[in-house]
Amino acid sequence: MRRKPPLNDYSSDSTADEDDDAATIVDHLCHKAETKLLDDDMKGLKKFSLKQQQQRMERLGSMEIDNDSTTEIKIKTEKLENAENAENEEKRPKKHSITEEISEATESQPPAKMWKGVKYKTWSMGTIQPGTKFKKPTDREVIETLFRMGVTVAPAKAEDSRRCIFCQSQGDATADGPARLLNFDVDKWVHLNCALWSNVVYEMQSGALMHLDDVLQNNLMQICIVCEKSAGTIKCYKPRCTNCYHLMCAVKDGCVFYKDKTMYCPQHILKNEKDKELITLSAYRRVYVNRDENRQVAAVMHHSEHNHLLRVGSLIFLSVGQLLPHQLQNFHTPNYIYPVGYKIVRFYWSMRRPNKRCRYVCSIHDVSGRPEFRVLIQEPLQEDVELRDATPRAVWSRILEPLAELRRSTNSVQLFPRYVSGEDLFGLTEPTVVRVLESLPGIETLTDYRFKYGRNPLLELPLAINPTGSARTEARLRNQLPWKRPHTQRTGGFASRGVPFGLSTCSVAAAMGGGVSSTLVAAAAAVGETASCPYSKQFVHSKSSQYKKMKQEWRNNVYLARSKIQGLGLYAARDLEKHTMVIEYIGEIIRTELAETREKQYEARNRGIYMFRLDEERVVDATLCGGLARYINHSCNPNCVAEIVEVERDLRIIIFAKRRISRGEE
């Protein structure tokens, strides 16, 4: 039998549980009371701190306080209150004394930034505004200021010996004055504004200054009224005013320049035209003097005693050389001519020093009847090295390959030698040099050479020097024909086919569209009539030889430009003497019946008609495929005549000069 526990023990256990519950209730009540007291203390502390802040703000009432700073303080105090409430809620289940809670709250609270916006501000762009605004200086003004202060270190300037042919001042001038020097002719220079503001001179849309040579011929003797020197080419625009100036003399005298390129002296300044006055004379655009470059090159070639050199970029042309008759066949290819004695200087990248340039002297020599190409490398602090080979590409490859390897080793921009031509580096592809080479004596006899420009009539180069000193000992070409005396062209026979067709050097029908050329076919029908041509009587050389010469030089005779008559027209590129073959009228040769059909089709399409009758059965149609001769215009006072000439058993329509035609004339 199990023994029951005594009643006393049970009652003691129950009383113990009841005591624990009571203690828990009492502890809970005490905790509530403590938290309540803690909240009351924190509220009192916050009120006290806010009151102190208000008192401090009242003391500083005389100081200006931004509204932004006060609102910033309020926002920050609200954030601090929210952070403190969150911390208090986390700390509620824990039992701590009131003093510890207060000390922890005060330690965790960051100090308030009360003086922000009052005694200091956070810096940002625009925080401090200057009292006066200053204009930002340009790069040019900064450079000029540095030079005036004398703090820059620059190499000594080389003396500029060039002089303006108008104002006679030396070297380039300021942009707001005479400005930079422009090349006018061989060793002749002119300031940009001295030329631009000269009388009669005008500027094209491309930047070319026209009629400057006329100013030099007519106005060089005009006396400037300020300095009393010649070449006062800038005149007052007022009618009957005889005042002439140099540019700087006009500026000093108080002349006014206007936007329509007029200038008035102080006595005739326009009233109420202030908005049209020019503020500055600076011309930061492309401006150049329109000149005949072929004529300039010819002048350099002819006046070698003046030591003038021709430079094209990094190439300096020293000598053209010569070709003897027995050298012509071996010293050329279908695309290039290799004269013996040819010499140039090329500035190119060094193959021994990275990122440096040096001087390469290129020349052509005769070795065993074949051309030998030599390159002399001249470099400071280095020995001169001469390379030789049979072709331009081979000799320059010995320079380009080490140069490419040098660039690869220094991690520089790579060079690809196979895309660099030896002929380019020798200067044999430069248009100016090619014109000179194609004008050498005897080059016109080459049958397998493809001419690019033809012989330049302005370049009358001397004949090749015969080493033996005797004409009888000159080598004779195997395919050279026996010498024949030039014969005159008879006036009879085919001369009756000459067409005294009145033309002015411009377009047969307006290139802008008007169908005019049906009259051209009708006028050309006069070919069948027996009319004698007086122009053939004057010819000393045969028509065939003149035709061959014209085929090579016609690009130097004419150029296409806007016509004053109608549409486009042809203008003389050089002075053309009387009876000179100017250009050939070329196109598609068709039958008369087809020409009539095409004429109707062109008229239906409102297309210009360019046709010229060759004989009774054939017509030359240049409407869709033809040369520049189709742009020649009609004129009541013609300066050209069309004539049908038999060349190599074939009929050709040739335009002849009826009288002397000046350069630039239509």
TrEMBL record:
Pfam families on file: FYRC, FYRN, SET, zf-HC5HC2H_2
PROSITE patterns, per database record: EPHD, FYRC, FYRN, SET
Subcellular compartments: Nucleus
Domain of life: Eukaryota
GO MF entry, a single one: histone H3K4 methyltransferase activity
Segments passing through the bilayer: none
SMART domains (alphabetical): FYRC, FYRN, PHD, SET
Positions of the UniProt region annotated as Disordered: 1-21, 76-111
Protein name: Histone-lysine n-methyltransferase trr
Organismal lineage: Eukaryota, Metazoa, Ecdysozoa, Arthropoda, Hexapoda
